[in-house]
Specification:
With about 210 residues, the protein is an alpha/beta fold. It contains eight helices and six strands; from the N terminus they run βααααβαβαβαββα. It has two domains: about 140 residues, Rossmann fold; about 60 residues. It is about 45% helix and about 15% strand. It has a six-stranded parallel beta sheet, sandwiched between helices. Helix 3 runs parallel beside helix 5.
Length: about 210
């Protein structure tokens, strides 16, 4: 798939953090919501918007400050100690840039979480742009704003971009922005609905083939 830019989601794509968030949410949601909630409903959302979503749809029994504190505490451990970088990601980013394509990181996570991951794996020079939902007043996926803003930062049109996402909300966000989509099905979210993507891959090798070859 050819493009002028490739935009990567962070959680579940560049690093395997999504499985840890699923574990946290499977434990946390029953503590703050009386009804049963699937973690798939909120995958790809910013954690502050997750609280608002749960409060609107189900009503919560904990304060937003308490909810946010659990995520902040978990983020320090997840990004600082536990996550692993996608196999071959450095090589993939290098191949894309060598091919003349811009590479960006586009996440609903706050900048301090993103920065912790970038510093841990020394990835700052691998991206031409790093965009957080914080830069557009926190409107996270599935809102298309974060992808539209990323395209602006790269100086390309959305229809000249390919986004790589592992969640239904992420796919919806990039498609609404007018981008082509590659759905990345990792081990933590094998059941998520990614059929709206233009292509779906199940391994780093397949992703490399789809984007580069």
């Amino acid at each position: 798939m050819q493009s002028k830019a490739v935009l990567f989601d962070m959680d579940g794509v560049v690093v395997d953090s999504e499985r840890y968030w699923v574990e946290l949410e499977a434990e946390l949601y029953p503590e703050v919501v009386a009804e049963s909630v699937s973690t798939e409903e909120t995958t790809g959302m910013n954690f502050r918007e997750i609280y608002d979503y749960l409060d609107d749809e189900y009503e919560t029994t904990a304060s937003k400050d308490e909810f946010v504190a659990r995520y902040e505490e978990a983020a320090r451990d997840i990004y600082g100690e536990r996550v692993v970088l996608m196999d071959g990601f450095r090589e993939l980013a290098a191949d894309l840039r060598e091919d003349g394509r811009a590479v960006a990181l586009v996440s609903s996570s706050p900048h301090d979480w993103i920065d912790r991951m970038l510093d841990r794996f020394d990835l700052r020079d691998d991206f031409d742009a790093v965009v957080s939902a914080e830069e557009i007043d926190g409107a996270s996926k599935p809102d298309p704003g974060v992808y539209e803003y990323a395209a602006e930062q790269l100086g390309v049109n959305p229809d000249e971009c390919i986004a790589v996402e592992d969640s239904e909300n992420g796919v919806e966000s990039a498609k609404a922005a007018g981008m082509r989509m590659v759905g990345y099905r990792n081990q933590s979210d094998a059941e998520l609905e990614l059929s709206a993507a233009d292509a779906v891959v199940e391994s780093p090798g397949e992703l490399q083939e789809t984007l580069v070859e």
